[in-house]
Amino acid sequence: MDGANGSKILVTTRKKSVASIMGNFPMQELKGLSKKDCLSIFVKCAFNDGEDKQYYPNILKIGEQIVEKCAGVPLAVRSLGSLLYSKKDERDWVSIRDSEIWKSEQNQDGIMAVLKLSYYDLPHHLKQCLALSSMFLKNYKIGNRDLIKFWMAQGLIQSVGQNATMEDISETYINDLLSRSFFQDVEEILPGVYYDFKMHDLVHDLAMFFAKNEYFTLSFRKEDIPKRIQHVSFSNTHWPNEEYEASRFLEKLNSAIRTIDFLSASCSKSFLNACFLRFKCIRVLELSESRFEALPNSIGDLKHLRYLSLTENTVIKKLLSSICKLYHLQTLFLFGCSELEELPRGIGNMINLRSLMMTTKQRDISFQWLNSLQDLDIIHCLNFELLFKEMGSLTALRKLAIANCPNLVSLSPSIKLLTTLEVLLITSCEKLEFMDGEAEGQEDTQTFGSLRILRFQDLPRLEALPRWLLHDTTSNTLRELLIADCPNIRALPETGLQKLTHLQKLEIEDCPQLTERCRAKTGEDWQKIAHIPEIYVAEKRFHLFRGWMKTGNRVVELDAREGVIKCGSSSMIG
User: Environment class of residue 292 by beta-carbon count within 10 Å: exposed (0-12), middle (13-18) or buried (19+)?
Assistant: First the structure.
């Protein structure tokens, strides 16, 4: 690796032995946080504001003793604080302080002792979920949807009642692990719907420790393979030259393998077929970035398969009809399969399919009989022209995203029959002109019924918002509306948005004429939106970003240059 004269490389590590190898520059050892700072972090994690000294002075003193054991490590302090947040019995705090784990764990800074204490406090189902989360690589941004589909496929989600879906229950699992600091660094993609997060590398080590008897990353030079192994990843290194060597290697593995992740490893179709013939209990098959033009016909024999990803396979052209025998499949990811000619005609046989993300060359697509489908993403379908007519058959659909479909002209009128739909996202469809499908006055007033979030983005030909937006069933549920990069939308409907009585947030970005008409207090359309609690209106021109935002009764002018947002004058409404 070449660098310019004067370049420097900064290496960070938790091991002194690694630092000593790196060169002759003196090692800079960072000390832990002070006891005062650690106690401040601990109190914020373990108590609600102000309740520590007022209501729990005794356990606060025990907390100070626990903090001393954390040796100034922020992760340890935060983990134990989060662990004790819901425990206000003095005996629980004493149990943590006096645990034998502090004595048995001799690793650096005692951090693993802290993490194990937090792990052992988890209910059984969360222990399983955390351990298997170690299959995601260190420092990897984990998407909530990816993790949820993985947990579901493994059968880790416990039913809590008829009205709660597996997806909703999984979200509570993620929130529990976030609140206990096992997950961190949340990055919102679509607030309240899609987000990414990470596992601290030490938490990842902890999860790997508890998953070590079940999960293994394989290379073909491995000799000592645990007998109980159920989840495997194949690394891309040391792949054998001869096909028979790879097939013979499979005989070393437990035939009850439940997960196979190829980690972008380039295996042959015959080796994949050998996997299908030996491992009949596969539940998760991760083939992202693979290079198969077609899958082996034997994939139809994987009766237990719940999760299949062919994401970013840019050469696959056809899915064999045998894939439609996967009656238990819940998740099918075909995003980025740019050469895929069409979905198999028997896809309606996948009666348990709940999530479908797809890229194909089809002009029109039918999803009839997919009564369990909850999430549908139609992305980069370059020939896609018309939204399917049988929308009403998707009786469980909750999220629909249509993106980068340049030939899509209009939405089907039957889209309004999606009474369970909660999130509708339409973006980067340059020819899309019509949202309604019927002439004004002829449309059916029965629309949606559950829609919470609606986003229109980068639709240059769209001239008006859909009329169904103001129908009673939509106006009673819609909470968030985004209109961005739609320059031909010049004004809001004449009746305004007053009917949207539950709308909490409106965002308008890069719609020049609409932005001007919605200017706070002076714009022609201001009275149509003034009732909405949170409004954000902005326009980007070259490197300048200007606009205003309303929160409650206060309006604040915004001015951004080179990525720095400055809040200008503010005023009250009323």
Answer: middle
- The pLDDT score that the predictor gives to residue 562 is 44
DSSP per position, 368-406: TT-TT--EEEEES-TT--B--S-GGG-TT--EEEEES-T
- Position 532 scores a pLDDT of 92
Is the pLDDT at 184 greater than 90? The verdict is yes
Interacting residues of 330 by C-beta distance below 8 A, sequence separation 6+: 149, 152, 153, 306, 307, 352, 353, 354, 355
In this prediction the pTM is 0.86
**Sign of the C-alpha dihedral computed for residues 398, 404, 405 and 410 taken in this order:** positive
Distance CA 261, CA 284 (A): 8
The Cα 137–Cα 515 span in angstroms is 43
Q: Strand order in 142-143's β-sheet?
A: 142-143, 194-198, 184-190
Residue 161 zone, left/alpha/beta (φ > 0; ψ -120 to 50; rest): left
| DSSP secondary structure letter of residue 434 | B
Distance from first CA to last CA of the chain, Å, rounded? Answer: 62
CB 470 within 8 A of CB 444: no
| Residue linked to tokens 């709308």 | 503
φ and ψ at 347, to 5 degrees? Answer: -60, -25
For residue 391, the SS3 value is helix
- Lowest-pLDDT range of 78-82, 276-280, 309-313: 78-82
Place of tokens 């100070």: 64
Query: C-alpha 158: how far from its chain's center?
Result: 20
Q: Is 152 helix (H, G, I), strand (E, B) or coil?
A: helix
Helix (H) / strand (E) element for 355: namely strand 355-358
Q: Alpha-carbon distance 28 to 93, whole Å? A: 36
CA distance 377 to 57: 53
Distance CA 429, CA 460 (A): 8
Q: What is the pLDDT of residue 439?
A: 46
As a whole number of angstroms, the distance between CA 99 and CA 206 comes to: 18
Confidence of residue 563 (pLDDT cuts 50, 70, 90): very low
The per-residue pLDDT for range 240-254, each reduced to its tens digit, is 666 677 777 888 888
Residue 204 to residue 194: CA distance in whole angstroms: 22
Q: Give residue-wise pLDDT tens across range 509-537.
A: 999 999 999 988 888 999 889 999 999 99
The tokens for 45 are 């994690």
